Amino acid sequence: MFTGRVNLPAVARTQALVLWIAILASFVSFLDSSVINVALPAISRELGGGLSTQQWVVDAYLITLGSLILVAGSLSDLLGRVVVLRAGLIGFGATSVMCALAPTVEVLILARALQGAAGALLVPSSLALITSHFDGAPRAKAIGQWTAGTTVAFIAGPLLGGVLVDSVGWRWVFGINVLPIAVTLYLLGTLRAKDVRQVGVRIDYPGAVLCVLGLAGPVFALIEQGNYGWGSPPIMAPLILGILCLAGFIWRERTAQQPLLPLSLFNVRNFSVGNVATALIYAALSTGGFIVVLFLQQVAGFPATLAALALLPVSIVSILLSSWFGSLAGRFGPRWFMALGPALAGGGYLLMLGAELPVNYWTQLLPGILLFALGLSATVAPLTAAILGSVSERQAGIGSAVNNAVSRVAGLIGIALVGLVVAGQLDLGGFHRVVASTAVLLILGGIVSAVGIQNPVRKPEAKKGQHDAAGNTHLGQTFRRGR
């Protein structure tokens, strides 16, 4: 007979298992994103191709990942978090093996696109798994632990990749996914909690197709324009088709009963402005990380391991300071942190304009990298808080998915533009141009935030135990979300 008692140890064990599954599943996706840049020169040397090939190895993954994240969220609701997560893990493992065994660059690019599609299933499903097993303050803490766990991937990825490239070869870079995937699948098999499915969910397949084509066409044109020329049919046809598909995607999302991208979210000021800032800032982050690692290997002659270590200070500073800046933004509001942080980060890239050949990392690059790391640490937590704090708790899941997709698509476009900025040839001058454009994107992100972001308005603090008109007990300070 049911006594009304809850088996707290069993619940705690299930929550701990869920948290580990979510961290490891997302770790796989983030690890692959962070490890690839350091392997690009070795891939190009073995399989052939120049800068455009390297761009495709990165962007083939980001096209499918960025365009399918919202679809994956709907699939997770329809089929269940565990089912979708298991499918994503198996798919990611299989496509990682395809990447490792690719005999040609064309096969590698195809495998990377399939890998991105599998990766799109991992992040939304892992977050949905957390939200379905945690509530209130424990949920916020679990998401914070999930974020910290995925941060490890950004630190470990380049280091592991550099060591593998310099020791046993670039193909093993894709093999490091196998162990965490196997462990996560085992843990999923031991999870006895009931899977969560929502009734009445419909997937907007036409919207998904339009989104994929709308991104792929312009990205193809940006990457391949150096090989064919802007006026050639192989460039103009996919460019025009992609633009038309993007317009069709926006129209579809306005008219669909269950859109992938609820455009009404962008009526909220901090959400819309925050995502514009996200696009500018994350395009800069992807472009900057891509070009620094490539320049150090292909132009400055650094081995892969040392090139990977070059950006390690960014991760260390972020781990040390991000939480502190997040607390400050909670006290004083996110606006000026989102304005000054990107400006500082852009200043860091401007300092890198002093790089000359031969490169002295300690005097020419490290000061700029440290200033960039400081600015980035002041930006990320306030940016996330401003965006997710502007929508209701009921919309937090889709709000997070939209922001994640915006950041991935921004990185995709940023990488695609690199070839245009360097004029097809990566040298010292090309490096300076990309570094300068990265700084401009960051500073623009700060300006957009300074002009558009609104700090939450403090409500008068109610005494402990005091009730408002709706009968809610106030236990502390509350805020009204900025619109």
From TrEMBL:
Entry's transmembrane regions: 16-36, 56-76, 83-103, 109-130, 142-164, 170-191, 203-223, 235-252, 273-296, 302-324, 336-355, 361-388, 409-428, 434-453
Gene Ontology molecular function: transmembrane transporter activity
Any single GO CC term annotated in Swiss-Prot or TrEMBL for this entry: plasma membrane
Domain Major facilitator superfamily (MFS) profile: 18-457
Protein's membrane topology: Multi-pass membrane protein
Keywords carried by this UniProt record: Cell membrane, Membrane, Transmembrane, Transmembrane helix, Transport
Compartment(s) of residence: Cell membrane
Region (Disordered): 461-483
Primary subcellular site in the record, as a coarse category: membrane
Protein name in the entry: EmrB/QacA subfamily drug resistance transporter
Organism field: Arthrobacter oryzae
